[in-house]
């Protein structure tokens, strides 16, 4: 009975966490998706089977990003078994619209109307989508917060066509993160207002409201264990490294001037015969020597550039062009392949900073992130590929690029979107939530070193000068340091568990103190607890650094298990964030309700159970 009490208390607490105003963090799926990833996606629930109780119907994972309509795949998508006998879209989940009583697929009189037609999917048409789709609105539920009348395009049937002319099934829908308008309004006489998840939370959110109509996102990497990060009304400052460029958006798109692309090495020796190579964007195409406007778009998977640019990069890599796909396959038998994708080699994108012609921001995408995998149904066996797609269509930097970049936008007032370097797999991933202020929107980066967030992943190549005349390679950095990385991560997990209990105890202490005095500025208490948590982590990871080989073995035995452990550890960290908030909720939400549960005891008892 006592345990039930504790469980109830925790349950109530976690409900309360959802109710605090402030930036809102989205939950990512613990699965990853293909067929050209692995990519990460966020979890939402579409539709509801009872308008009173808002019983959610279909849990689906969607690629977040893009603007205006969200594109939702219906459960009829896999009815066409000629296209594929296997329903690949089942992995992310399909929307069973028959079960939803809140669906409105009749009111909006604007194409597409449900007959076969081309369908825009992101800003490039390099891989056109042909589909039977229809406009609609329905509820979307994010972590217990229902959002009504979300602007949707429902896809009943459809496929995407690769350059070889073959049709391949669609697998994952997209979740729009707003538009320059609060609502998309349809109809001449009778106006139908459709919402977006972040515009609704900002404008009509009430107790769930977010501070601005904005978001900040780093999609991370499933294969390298960089968790996804998406905040609405704010961003995670630890996902922003160094300079931030802000520039105007255009309708719903994020254009930016790309001046050049280059190859480089962050530390140690080079995999090539030169330390760096610039001029790859305009190589062999004089019309691009002064730059090219590209659109950054998380709903498209690849990096879409004119053939000459992709070819110029590919000429420096052990890859072969595959005209069937418009992509390049890595030649895994070439020793240069392993050298490039495991060393600190990167592809750098030099952009105009703040829309200026004489200021630059460079985003470095390590080749470790550009070793992506094509899977069935695109290919029969998993094939590592280099994600540059040669196209005459709109040049787009898609998810392949965004694995290494932070993007954000503030839709109202200033109308700016933000671009910055994002961290690598050795970052701490302790969420450091920052608010995007609606009147003075800006994103400020953390001062962490980008190289440090990759150090343990990289196998540094010897510098030519360190190979001495007597033939001994003096460079000690040539051995992979993967074990350390694991330790750091385990350190974070253990640290956060121990730290979590401590922090909770602290918070509860604070709460009790707070009950005695008047409510005060919440922010400084928050920063204290975050600091405490970090110090714990550092100490813990130092403690754990000794038995390198043991951890290495564990890692080698079951890398997947490792990844999941890490993921749950991170959830733990994320939970700390919101849990700090309800304290203030509790304060003014009637203490009698919560009175019976003695907070400090509850926290120490229930913590292990939650892990
Ligand atoms: C993913 O999450 C679901 C529930 O959210 C859980 O049932 C499942 O076991 C998790 N899978 C892995 C591999 O962690
Ligand atoms: C709604 O869905 C829930 C769970 O998915 C189910 O238990 C309930 O019976 C459904 N209600 C209706 C009216 O279909
Ligand atoms: C099923 O998919 C195939 C392959 O794309 C297509 O040719 C066919 O017309 C589709 N059938 C239906 C009923 O949509
Ligand atoms: C609207 O959705 C319902 C339920 O899925 C479906 O039966 C109906 O055919 C749809 N109507 C149109 C016009 O697409
Ligand atoms: C849509 O919003 C406008 C205000 O922007 C309002 O005048 C109109 O009545 C709304 N329409 C509906 C159907 O709620
Ligand atoms: C947006 O749509 C919602 C839901 O229909 C409505 O309540 C709200 O007034 C609309 N806001 C604007 C600015 O049109
Ligand atoms: C590129 O290499 C040259 C030497 O070839 C070096 O002088 C220059 O600093 C390098 N640039 C960068 C950005 O590393
Ligand atoms: C050269 O670049 C322009 C864009 O600036 C592009 O339209 C054209 O197709 C490119 N030519 C080749 C041969 O790639
Ligand atoms: C490239 O990626 C694949 C799939 O994630 C992985 O198995 C392989 O080890 C990677 N290659 C190298 C050299 O790291
Ligand atoms: C190689 O040279 C380094 C110094 O240049 C020296 O320390 C080392 O002992 C030498 N090794 C052999 C095997 O001669």
Automatic annotation (TrEMBL):
Keywords: Membrane, Signal, Transmembrane, Transmembrane helix. InterPro entries: PEPTIDASE_A1 (IPR033121), Peptidase_aspartic_dom_sf (IPR021109). The chain crosses the membrane at residues 490-512. Residues 517-538 are annotated as: Disordered. The keyword Transmembrane helix applies. Residues 27-420 form the Peptidase A1 domain. Residues 519-538 have a biased composition (Basic and acidic residues). Gene3D superfamilies: Acid Proteases (2.40.70.10). Coiled coil: none annotated. Residues 1-20 form the signal peptide. This is Peptidase A1 domain-containing protein. It comes from Penicillium olsonii.
